[in-house]
Amino acid sequence: MEKIYEEIKLFKRDRCHPVSTFGGNNIGLGRLRFIKREELEKSKYLKNDSFTVRCDVVVTKRIRSEETPLVVRTSPKPKVARLVTVPPSDLHRHLQDLLCAEKGADVVFEAGGETFTAHRCVLAARSPVFSAELFGSMKESDTTVVIRIDDMEAQVFRALLFFVYTDSLPETKKEDEYAMCQHLLVAADRYNMERLKLMCEERLCSYIGVGTVTTILELAEQHNCDGLKKACFDFLSSQENLKAVTAGEGLEHLSRNCPSLVNELIGTLGNLIQ
């Protein structure tokens, strides 16, 4: 076999042969060197009217590079018993203690004939109005100067400070809660404390009734409490409730103080108002 193979080999490997490359557009290629038929018939390569042609073909595929996301498979974490319990935040308690102890207090207020000490930084952090007052025009003033709070009772300002330091409302007697919520809502609007204002709105919604709805509605209108105002309108949308309110003096008082609100009420509930 080796001898025959050597005989039919047309080109030796030690010769330098041109390399032909076939692309997508090239379907064939001829050779410039030919052998005549007479020479082929006389040559030793023709055996029994046949000869063998050897072709070495190398096919190179285009290499495509694609990014494949690496997926790391991890075994599930073993269940570990929880032996450490993190308690809830008690920051409010520490701040309340700071307020009660008056430790480090640097500002004094007077409201309803009583004095209250507080911390400028805490007040400024909780209210943009306090921030402007304490770190604006009064920044360079003597800390011993007493800041007077007009038109606010002592228990209301005390409750306001309690919320500033604890982010919650103080405990109030049930009979005093309705009035306290009204006063605190006014104070919250005055010092631009939105969370306190919404908390007061929520509690006042539970006090809406025939005898209180017009007072609460007027309060909501004066201090832009949209949710509380809608709750009052919903209460009055009942023909039975509206009839009971109309029989009293609430609407007359409302028409004197907030005539535009009464017009809005008529426009909304006109079909129920006789």
UniProtKB/TrEMBL annotation:
The BTB domain covers: 105-173
Pfam families reported for this sequence: BACK_BPM_SPOP (PF24570), BTB (PF00651)
Q: Name one GO biological process term.
A: protein ubiquitination
Which Gene3D superfamilies does the record match to this protein? Answer: 1.25.40.420, Apoptosis, Tumor Necrosis Factor Receptor Associated Protein 2, Chain A (2.60.210.10), Potassium Channel Kv1.1, Chain A (3.30.710.10)
- Ranges of residues in domain MATH: 1-57
Entries under InterPro entries matching the protein? BACK_BPM_SPOP, BPM1-6, BTB/POZ_dom, MATH/TRAF_dom, SKP1/BTB/POZ_sf, TRAF-like
Instruction: Identify the pathway.
Output: Protein modification; protein ubiquitination
Write out the similarity annotation: Belongs to the Tdpoz family.
The protein's name is BTB domain-containing protein
**Protein's organism:** Oryza sativa subsp. indica
Read off the lineage from the record.
Eukaryota, Viridiplantae, Streptophyta, Embryophyta, Tracheophyta
